[in-house]
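Case study 2.
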Amino acid sequence: MTFGEKLFKLRKEKGFSQETLAEQIGTTRQAVSKWENNQGFPETEKLLQISDIFEISLDFLLKDEKSSDERKEGGYYVSKEMATGYLANQKKESTCIGMGFMFWALAGIPYVMFANHLTWRFLGMAVFTIAGISSFVSGLFLEQESYKVLKEEPLILDYKYRKELSGLYYAKKKIYDTLVIQNERFGLSDTIKNSIKIAKIKTIIYSCQSYTTLAKDLADLESNYQLEKIVALDSSCHNSYLTTIVKLVRK
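Prediction:
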């Protein structure tokens, strides 16, 4: 698909006329018509405006691609609307399948409760089993035909929506409340430090037997955590080290 074909397709999807698009980017209808017919190419400033209007990346706009049956190895372009619809569809599908398994699990309840009433026992089990099958089958058939290509092709996600999804992903990461770390003299590894930063742990209680190691670890974590309390404790009678306990709170 050439730049002109992409521009024509995007304009139609938005419901814009050539005049409307021309007004938004400060050019003429004739210029838009030439671009769509591959008889010219917009300036860099106009390309940036087009990218913002249609919420797509410049990379997608500028790279020529084949038709849907002859896509290049780059992948299948997914708009924000299609991605949102697919995620909602997957959520419904997963819910139905999950409920199916839940009903099958619940089928054991009447089996236990009505041990002396065979009619009620098998009737209850039949109801839960049928409900489970119905829910499971519904989930399998919820997937729309238009979304199947998303599981079969490499994908190119809309640039702005990809950034939005990344932001939501990091914002929804599970926030742990407190982490207790007992360390002797060797300090925290880089892997542990990176995991602490990514996991967004609120409070860290850290004990260490070496002032040098403790100072180094605190320096590495100071961009994300602030020291709230420090306590020096006498070590156990069988060793001569002094244990220091610190409480760190996420900034």
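The CA atoms of residues 2 and 92 lie 36 Å apart.
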